[in-house]
Design goal:
Length: about 500
């Protein structure tokens, strides 16, 4: 159990003996039914960013080194659904998936029985808060070395008013002292058990908040509040589904980087990678890098192999070539793309058609043709978007629109192909030194551009990771100087237009 015993300057000293918990347990409360969302299934089973909400939530605790065990309290009639999610996702810390109670209080009591009598740390968390950060988990656990109860909250950006039965204002509390509560709520097990023991003797007991139970029935017990986050939203209403989906879309997933050349060689030797758009820019750098690590890489492009990504027959011929040479295809990478600037109303039909065909129809065509090969190896399709996918920009509306479409395609295919074990991800590099970018924008200061080699390295890390359905941001580190000289524009590069920007 990894726990930092550092205490802050405001640490309380109410505990006379050192706290020695046997373990730290995360209790995920998944008893909601989704009635406010108008769903036929519990909201925690709704898919966001390619996975059920509860799977995203459980994955946070699974990855947190401070957490030793996870217990899931599931809605009536859906325990088996949750168990299947746990098994399929390989969540090893989950020890129990059991049915929750009719109320939050009843569910907490069931959870306390499931945890057992040993002294331990307990974190109660809403299953429908899937954007919980590891930082919040860590701070909650650390705070339990000093406090017996911990809450998570954020400042209120709105003025809070108190009203009477006629909806007339009776008070306006000082906003600076108000917080909006979140979860997890964390406790030393003796504290929360004692609070509920006393509450059982109150015939009027009713609460939806475990810290509220401690506050009411163990007055004088300090409850530490740590900072939550705006992203840690609770999916309760229909609009929350859209907000959470967008937050996941904008969140930068991180692919683990291996430590040395030998590790990459062990991972990549014997793998077959097909790169559409492999002649210049990111595709070219990825081809060379993967080859150095022992992968068999087959680059295809319009200029060097006559491969048009929007033509199904060209794509199939390319895949067949790679498969016949090696007997397998592990990864298919699509860096091919073109960028044409200009006002939409002034753009000719030929240019618009070329943009749509290469930037969107091409990846769709490749995805369809590649699936049978990737199914055999449980491989991955890797696409490329650009920072313009988050909002359309004047004078390259179609380019921005196609890049946004690739993000949605990534998440949809990751969901569709999960059952056959094929992963789909999308790289989102910041402004990168490629021939395509130089052609569109001219020479730019070197220190403002990301090196194509850096994007290639991150791409390789994603290919050998277990990520799926993710948009992976690739950014220059703050303070970085120029990485490599910007690549000069070439006539061949303009014709091939095979590098993502």
């Amino acid at each position: 159990m990894t726990q930092d015993q550092t205490t802050g300057p405001d640490a309380a000293t109410e505990t006379p003996v050192p706290w020695r918990p046997s373990r730290t347990v995360a209790v995920v409360l998944a008893g909601g039914t989704g009635t406010r969302l108008g769903l036929g299934i519990p909201k925690q089973l709704l898919k966001i960013a390619g996975k059920p909400i509860i799977e995203h939530t459980l994955a946070v605790f699974e990855a947190a080194p401070e957490i030793d065990e996870i217990i899931v309290l599931m809605a009536t009639g859906h325990v088996e659904d949750a168990r299947q999610i746990v098994e399929k996702a390989g969540l090893r810390k989950v020890t129990k998936v059991i049915e929750g109670g009719d109320t939050r209080n009843a569910t907490t009591r069931i959870a306390l029985d499931a945890v057992g009598p040993a002294d331990c740390n307990i974190l109660f968390h809403d299953a429908v808060r899937p954007l919980l950060s590891g930082r919040i988990v860590r701070e909650c656990v650390n705070a339990l070395w000093t406090y017996t109860a911990v809450d998570v909250a954020i400042p209120s950006a709105d003025t809070i008013i108190q009203v009477d039965d006629n909806d007339c204002i009776t008070d306006i509390p000082v906003r600076s002292r108000l917080r909006r509560g979140q979860t997890p709520q964390a406790f030393r097990s003796p504290t929360i058990r004692e609070a509920y023991r006393i509450a059982e003797g109150d015939p009027d007991f009713a609460a939806t908040d475990d810290c509220g139970v401690v506050l009411r029935y163990l007055p004088g017990t300090p409850i530490k509040v740590i900072d939550g986050s705006d992203e840690n939203i609770k999916v309760t209403h229909p609009v929350d589904v859209h907000l959470a989906d967008k937050l996941f879309q904008l969140a930068a997933a991180q692919a683990p980087r291996l430590t040395d050349h030998r590790s990459y060689t062990e991972e990549l030797t014997g793998r077959t990678i097909v790169v559409f758009g492999g002649s210049y820019g990111i595709g070219h750098e990825l081809t060379e890098l993967a080859q150095r690590y022992g992968a068999q890489v087959f680059p295809f492009s319009r200029s060097t192999t006559g491969t048009h990504v929007e033509r199904a027959e060209d794509v199939e011929a390319a895949l067949t070539t790679a498969f016949e040479a090696t007997g397998r295809i592990d990864h298919v990478v699509v860096t091919a793309g073109i960028l044409e600037k200009g006002a939409l109303a002034e753009m000719d039909e030929e240019t618009m058609d070329r943009l749509l065909q290469v930037n969107f129809v091409g990846p769709v065509t490749i995805a369809r043709q590649a699936l049978p090969y990737l199914q055999q190896t449980k491989g991955q399709l890797l696409l490329y978007t650009s920072s313009s996918y988050t909002r359309g920009r004047a004078r390259y509306a179609l380019y921005s629109a196609t890049k946004a479409a690739l993000v949605n395609l990534t998440q949809a295919l990751a969901d569709e192909w999960a059952d056959v074990g094929v992963r789909v991800n999308c790289i989102n590099p910041e402004r990168t030194a490629t021939p395509m970018r130089t052609r569109a924008f001219g020479e730019e200061p070197e220190h403002t551009l990301l090196a194509a080699e850096a994007v290639a390295q991150s791409s390789l890390d994603v290919l050998i990771s277990d990520l799926t359905g993710q948009v992976i941001d690739v950014r220059r580190a703050p303070g970085d100087g120029p990485s490599v000289p910007a690549q000069p524009a070439r006539a061949e590069a303009a014709a091939a237009a095979t590098s993502a920007s």
